[in-house]
Amino acid sequence: MESEELANLADELTPYTKNYLNNVVTVLDDSDVKKLGKWSDKPLSEVFLESIDHLKSAEPKRDWNAKSSSNDRKTNHGMGGDSTNEAMHSNNWVISGKHTTTGKPMLANDPHLGASIPSFWTLNEVVWEDKFLIGGSTPGVPLIGIGKSKNISWGQTSPLCDTSDLWQETVNEDVTKYFVDGAWRDLTIVKETIKIKGKPD
Amino acid sequence: MQPKTMKSGGVLFGGTLPDPKHEFWYSHAWGGMTPGEGLIQIVKHISNGVGVTELFSKIEEEFKDGYRGIPMNFVVADNAGDIGYMMLAAYPNRKDKTPFIGNRVLNGETT
Description:
The complex is a heterodimer.
Chain A lengths: L2 H10 L1 H8 L8 H6 L8 H8 L20 H4 L15 E5 L10 E5 L11 E7 L2 E7 L8 E4 L2 E6 L6 E6 L7 E4 L2 E4 L15
Antiparallel strand pairs in A: 1-2, 3-4, 4-5, 5-6, 8-9
Chain B lengths: L8 H4 L12 E6 L8 H9 L4 H11 L9 E7 L4 E6 L16 E3 L4
């Protein structure tokens, strides 16, 4: 797309910016995505995974069963991988009202997820009685994750801490047992039903 | 039955990991998978118009046995000028104390 064409498109999309400022939900619809040349007939999940593909750094040579070394501290920074890429590291900060001229606190929260189509974030507002919540939400998560209410603002970023474990398992032929500490144990099979509107379970 | 492929493994489990190999089976444990409301519960309190101090006492009461949910750096500020920070995360107590950020692939044949 030529730069002039892009500029025209930006002008065309300006109303969305106005809506954003007026606290109205801002979401690109299918026709906007088509105009941007990003339309795809693939399932949304595939498009999303492709859009974040750049987050994966070059794959290091690694012995999967080796014990971690102190070198991991320098090279493994969770999502994004490349510790030299500061743009991939989210940040948030908050300043007390004691240190501002207005007496009100200041809060900034930047999850550094990058721009993507479809967008990771959508702006949502919930109003009831004399209260409201407004902020960023993401498809599939039933809450506003970063936002403000009538009297409080909140933000969150990933601490990139080591809170998960991944094991490479040995399972039997029909995947009913796994091997651990010299013996086979039964796998527990859990069946999850994900309900889809208008479709049977 | 064929092992399920995990195309986005490198992203989900830390960018420095290669995609898990498709011929193997993996099991995964993460604090964020623990059933419970976590951030939703906190946002419910926020919805009810609490200030920072009250919100933090509610969080401490709510998660007195330890926060289980998606790990996060949580920051808040209210109209009264108060601010707060809390790192909400549950860490496994490991035998291997080597500092590590991200995920490592462990041998599932031993505990």
